[in-house]
Amino acid sequence: MSFLFLVLNISACGSDGVKGNGKTTELSLEEAKKFETGFLYIRSPFESRKKEEDFKIKEIERVAKAKNIDLNIYHAKEDTSKLGLKQNSLTFAFYQDGEVKEKLDFIDLSEDDIYFKVETFVQSVQQKHSK
Description:
Distance between the termini: 24 Å
Oligomer: single chain
Strand content: 15-25%
Largest sheet: 5 strands, mixed
Number of strands: 5
Radius of gyration: 15 Å
Order of helices and strands: HEHEHEEEH
Low-confidence stretches: 1-15
Strand order of the largest sheet: 1-3-2-4-5
């Protein structure tokens, strides 16, 4: 009986979304709308931002691997205000129980600041929301 309890306890501890194994997962629109727990980045629908966003995602992935978090990405196909999402494009957010708890907006960040800002954001989320 205690073995069963131990297994259930371990799986419950890993479900807070602040820990993972550094993997990146692309989400569909439906999955992004129903996103429950973890880190989510919304890509811009505009092709003109592709190069800049590829750089941002590489930096986020570097932090994800270093901090052992899983990264989820939704690539918007149109203006996100029309899609029913809880966050805008060019943002990286932490969700818990289907609600945005913390958000980092990339709109005004220079390329030089991205890694540091993402790392600081993830550390802050891990400290505040680890169970």
